[in-house]
Design a protein that fits this description.
Elements lengths: L4 H36 L12 H25 L1 H11 L14 H18 L3 H19 L6 H7 L6 H7 L4 H4 L9 H6 L26 H6 L8
Helix pairs in contact: 1-4, 1-5, 2-3, 2-4, 2-5
């Protein structure tokens, strides 16, 4: 199945306007503010250990990405979270616009978790800011239609997530979709046994089984999709 590019972009960018205009900037400010607060008051795990400033920034980015991997995995494993996250996966094609196709409910839940993580680990505010920036760029790259040289991708895959790896994650095939949860680093999928590579990219069918009819993926369908019956 496929949807005309203009229509897909209109739908995906409409969701982005809702998310960014209403909540994204607010929660980004809240996350950074929390990082400033815990850094100033030396709250959280990282502030219990003496380390160079640059190392604290790096560890903050690594731990934030690890927590992101865990959260992403849970959005696929826990039915109530999948209700919201499936909006992202119901895109019938994948390009940079898919990176902003999220339900506002998921934006709220994710923001709440991220603020909690920053407070718990004592995330250094520069590290949190850099994480947010890197994550945004990584999402755009992973969802893009860019075809990178195989040699570059094989090297990039050692530590990071290339588009082909994330494309497998968007497969309609359940066994493929429940892999490759990493956002920035691919090492978490290696460590926890969820890495999948070597899938023929030309044979990947993007989407979610049960949500492959274009007429049922209009913007208003996506808004109330979390409150409709679940499919696997």
């Amino acid at each position: 199945a496929s949807v005309p590019k203009f229509k897909r972009w209109l739908i995906n960018l409409s969701l982005a306007i809702i998310n960014i205009g209403v909540l994204k900037l607010i929660f980004a400010f809240l996350t950074i503010s929390t990082a400033v607060y815990v850094t100033d008051r030396q709250i959280g795990l990282l502030n219990m250990v003496q380390m160079p400033h640059w190392l604290k920034i790096l560890v903050t980015i690594i731990l934030m990405d690890l927590m992101g991997y865990i959260w992403h995995t849970l959005t696929h494993r826990i039915p109530v979270l999948w209700r919201f996250h499936r909006v992202h996966h119901t895109d019938l094609n994948m390009d940079v616009s898919t990176a902003v196709r999220f339900h506002v409910g998921e934006i709220i839940l994710t923001a709440g978790v991220r603020v909690g993580v920053v407070y718990f680990i004592g995330g250094e505010y520069v590290g949190v800011f850099l994480f947010e920036c890197i994550l945004m760029l990584a999402n755009q790259f992973q969802h893009s239609c860019l075809k990178v040289p195989k040699w570059f991708e094989s090297v990039f895959l050692i530590l990071f997530v290339p588009p082909s790896m994330h494309r497998i994650h968007h497969s309609v095939t359940l066994e493929e979709r429940n892999t490759n949860f990493g956002a920035i680093f691919s090492i978490w999928d290696r460590m926890f046994g969820t890495l999948l590579t070597g899938v023929n990219q030309k044979q990947i069918w993007i989407g979610v089984d049960g949500h492959i009819q274009e007429k049922k993926l209009e913007i208003y369908h996506l808004v109330y999709m979390p409150f409709t019956p679940l499919v696997p």
